[in-house]
Design goal:
The chain is mainly alpha-helical. It has one domain. It contains 8 helices and 2 strands. Helix 1 packs antiparallel against helix 4, helix 2 runs antiparallel to helix 3 and helix 5 packs antiparallel against helix 6. The longest helix has 21 residues. The chain is globular and about 50 Å long.
């Protein structure tokens, strides 16, 4: 739900949700750009810093749209079990660079593993074949459905 809600926040430009009995914040495009800029400023990993400062941030329109589509795809894939392994890999690829850039600060050491560990497990374990649409897709591909 986190990936889907953050993707929807980017698509419809909202930063918080209040359901009356429960409220939470999400990461919209402005927040995501701020996180990326902050990570790029603080990192000791020069290649990632340069890539984010010289490529990603100056072209945020393109990368923001890519991130929105990617988060929506990851959210739907994980929620419905459609290409669940691929969705988990996509999540790791999106969150991994930020986590690496901020590793030395200790800021996200205990927050991002909450995202990283379940995603890593979902890459290995084909959960969609048990509870999702991957279960229906695998027989169509002779059991070779890789996700």
């Amino acid at each position: 739900m986190v990936w889907l809600s953050n993707g929807l926040a980017k698509l419809f430009n909202f930063a918080s949700v209040n359901l009356g009995f429960f409220s939470f914040t999400v990461i919209n495009l402005d927040s995501a750009k701020g996180l990326a800029a902050g990570a790029a400023e603080r990192t000791y990993l020069a290649p990632l810093r340069l890539f984010f400062q010289d490529v990603v941030l100056p072209n945020w329109g393109i990368f923001g749209a890519f991130q929105t589509v990617a988060e929506l795809s990851i959210g739907v894939g994980l929620l419905l079990g459609i290409a669940s392994r691929l969705a988990a890999v996509g999540g790791l690829l999106l969150i991994g660079p930020i986590w690496l850039m901020l590793w030395h600060t200790g800021l996200y050491l205990w927050e991002y593993p909450l995202d990283l560990v379940p995603l890593a497990i979902l890459v290995v374990v084909p959960s969609g074949r048990v509870f999702g649409y991957d279960r229906r897709l695998a027989p169509r591909f002779g059991g070779r459905w890789p996700f």
